[in-house]
Automatic annotation (TrEMBL):
<dbReference type="Pfam" id="PF00975">
    <property type="entry name" value="Thioesterase"/>
</dbReference>
<keyword id="KW-0378">Hydrolase</keyword>
<dbReference type="GO" id="GO:0016787">
    <property type="term" value="F:hydrolase activity"/>
</dbReference>
<comment type="similarity">
    <text>Belongs to the thioesterase family.</text>
</comment>
<dbReference type="GO" id="GO:0008610">
    <property type="term" value="P:lipid biosynthetic process"/>
</dbReference>
<dbReference type="InterPro" id="IPR001031">
    <property type="entry name" value="Thioesterase"/>
</dbReference>
<dbReference type="InterPro" id="IPR029058">
    <property type="entry name" value="AB_hydrolase_fold"/>
</dbReference>
<dbReference type="InterPro" id="IPR020802">
    <property type="entry name" value="TesA-like"/>
</dbReference>
<protein>
    <submittedName>
        <fullName>Thioesterase</fullName>
    </submittedName>
</protein>
<feature type="domain" description="Thioesterase TesA-like">
    <location>
        <begin position="29"/>
        <end position="251"/>
    </location>
</feature>
<dbReference type="InterPro" id="IPR012223">
    <property type="entry name" value="TEII"/>
</dbReference>
Amino acid sequence: MATKAPSRAQSSAQLKIFAPVPAPRLRMICCAYAGGSAAVFRGWHERLPRDVEVCAVELPGRGARFREPPLRTMRALADDTMVGLLDCADADIVLFGHSMGGVLALELAKRLVDAGRPPLALFASGCAAPHLPSRRRRRLHDLPRDELVQELDLLQGLPAGMLDAQAFIDMFLPTIRADLESRETWRTEIPALPVPIHVLSARHDALVWTPDLGEWQRYSELPLNVRLFDGEHFFIDTHRPDVLAHLSGVLDALPAVAEAAADRAAAPIGQ
């Protein structure tokens, strides 16, 4: 477990820290849904434990990086994010990702494990296990503009209110399309990781089938945790207090869990 020391992480191009925490116990790296920016996680720190520092991933093509061309592969997105993530390695890390962000968070977890810095937990929210076939009727990223918007509307694939402003759609659709391409073309074999996975899902999510949530077990050597919420695909926005209350409870327990695991690993055989 990381020893507490003065925090050295600062907001970077890749990570936005809305409220820096001196000597954080945990850093929570948050990955947004397709088209989402770091702003999705603004204010989250207010409802999470005070010793948890929220670091929101800012990908090219949105937010402060709006003028940068969006990236079109999951590998490129992970490469970009790792540049900022390595600067946060002086504290224990947990990963949170919603929808497409859940897949990115899994890819980051694999890279951190390979680097000898496994995250204490991975929260996969509003995200089907990556190896499952999509519930969409067809790939979205190469559809014509109007068809893509219609499909996203039918599948709850855009945040509430976005379809009310055509100019807003046209501004962000290239980034959404690139994000969809990165998810729909992502093919990789990730083994079971020594990282506990917590699955968060909504009861009325059109993109994630509740009976399949257990498929996430494939990616963890540890028991899977599943929590259902009311709402639809963007329940992290519409039911934010419930989501953050759940996260707070899990985050509060993480150090004890991590210490117990370390003690078991260090104990002589037979004890």
